[in-house]
Amino acid sequence: MRKWLLGAPLAALAAVAATDLRQTRYPVLRTFPVLGHARMALTAIGPELRQYIVAGNDEERPFTRDQRDWVYESAEARATTFGFGTDNDIEFLEGYPIVKQRTFSDVTLSARPHAGQQLPLPPAKVLGAARGRARAYRPESLVSISAMSYGALSAPAVESLNRGAALSGALHNTGEGGLSPYHQNGADLVFQIGTAYFGVRDDDGRFDIDKLVALAEKHPIRAIEIKLSQGAKPGLGGLLPAAKITEEVAAIRGIPLGEDCASPSRHTAFHDVDSMLDLVEEIADRTGLPVGIKSAVGNMGFWEDLATAMVPRDRGVDFITIDGGEGGTGAGPLVFTDAVSLPFRLGFPRVYSVFAEAGLADDVMFIGSGKLGIPENAVVALALGVDMINVAREPMLSVGCIQAQKCHTGGCPTGVATQNPWLVRGVDPTTMAVRCSNYIRSLRRELVKVAGAVGVPHPGLIGPTDVELARGTRDAHTLADVYGYRDGWGLPGEDDARAITEFMVASGVAEYTTAVTPPGIGPRD
Fold first, then answer.
1. What pLDDT is recorded for position 51?
2. Quick one: pLDDT at residue 497?
3. Residues 6+ apart with CB under 8 A from 372
4. H or E element: which one contains 525?
5. Domains, the chain, ordered by start
6. How does strand 107-109 pair with strand 510-512?
7. 314, 284, 320, 285: which is closest to 302 by C-alpha?
8. CB 394 within 8 A of CB 316
């Protein structure tokens, strides 16, 4: 018996060694049979070892431990305070944002710890109002859930996000994969049209506007977004790996099982700015809804042509979503995630400046996405002229994501970004919806508090001179100086500023210390 117990493992090791010596795929195993597997095992669990043991609080990417902890604590509705000072290397970091508080201001925001947490906090602009859309709409929340399709995310994850959006008054973008049953749990929707036209295409895969009109009449769709590109893989179409395509996903999208689903890189329903605007106006006329575009920022010729075409004001998009090139939830080649298209802080100011120069900044709702669900990133975006914040990976964290970075494999261990039946059991929509709502409310609360420190009644009134980017302890420059903004850029127009100020005062979150409430935003210096 003892010989058998000893002989069986030795025989197994000998078999492994023989296999290693014969195979030609891995040189390290041919050179070091059996032992080479230890290296491969350590390599496989290296990310986990670094995440939990090796990396410091501010070393990991895309989200540091401190940032993830803030999301987790927010989702649990616990205190999001940190003690004993910052552990960021402010003295040595390039481009570190510094918000400049004011000592005196006519505006006072409540000092209560959770002030503003229950407030929906709408944006300063009304979506679609500038172009007179029949169903123009002021969103309840300036924080919305960005485009993530069913298929890329699991059914319970999508349902959790939709329920969380409903609880917090946020919009929920369907992503390009079509409108699934899991998007229909109470939240208002932004329906995204991708290059494959999932959910709104005919039998030949072409865009079918009649199907879109029927969807808009049946479901709580408040806006239509035409996706031109995304930060994860700008210039490429969407990619859903075969491992994540179930029968239900295939049926919703109209695609075969067992194959990667790769969307075309460009649209077939239009081919230039002129034909795109024709389609935008046709969709808006047929549905009455605001219509916008989403894109990462590369060559600026497109944006200059778009602004020029919109100057006569007979055609135009109602909103523009700028996605940073830092990558996102989508699967894409590493070179595209790392090196194609501009990061948000470089790309957005260029686009905004083109429209501001043309006198169109007040006609467009600007939406930003790309790691903007962390308060300091959101503040910078708002100061640059963003009207609404789209969040994606952060609400994923709120419903269970642990940044395992397995989204593209179908093996997400928490069940958020997989279709594996066993793994998706881990996501309970009832519980996770509350966590998602808590996170969105906490982010809005933090933005309200920063606005109070700056001396304005609403986060959208934080301007490009209120934030500086530091270069270590050598010097710092305002966003206006860094990006060449002119006076008034980055802020809503006077009418929008007055309207949102009145809303904040009426809601009880902001109050004026002067005897008479000013009609606008009041003195700030």
1. 61
2. 94
3. 324, 344, 378, 381, 386, 389, 390, 391
4. none
5. 110-451 (3.20.20.70)
6. antiparallel
7. 320
8. no
What counts of helices (H) and strands (E) characterise the chain? 18, 15
Tokens of 19: 């296999």
pLDDT of res. 516: 39
Q: pLDDT tens for residues 1-46?
A: 566 566 677 777 788 788 878 877 766 676 678 777 777 776 666 6
* Residue 308, helix vs strand vs coil: helix
Give me the pLDDT at residue 521, please.
47
Nearest to 319 by CA among 226, 221, 230: 226
β-strands 291-295, 319-323: how paired?
parallel
* Residues of the chain under the 50 pLDDT cut: 515-525
Give the integer Cα–Cα distance in Å for 165 and 179. Answer: 16
**Which tokens belong to 213?**
């009109």
- Secondary structure of 416-464 as H, E, C letters: CCCCCHHHHCCCCHHHHHHHHHHHHHHHHHHHHHHHHHHCCCCHHHCCC
Residue 196's φ and ψ, nearest 5 degrees, are -95, -5
- Say whether pTM exceeds 0.85: yes
Structure tokens at 331: 């699967």
Structure confidence by residue, pLDDT tens digits, 175-201: 999 999 999 999 999 999 999 999 998
27: which residues sit within 8 A by CB, 6+ positions away? none
Distance in Å from the first CA to the final CA of the chain: 88
Question: pLDDT value at position 224?
Answer: 98
Q: Which residues pair with 201 in a beta bridge?
A: 207
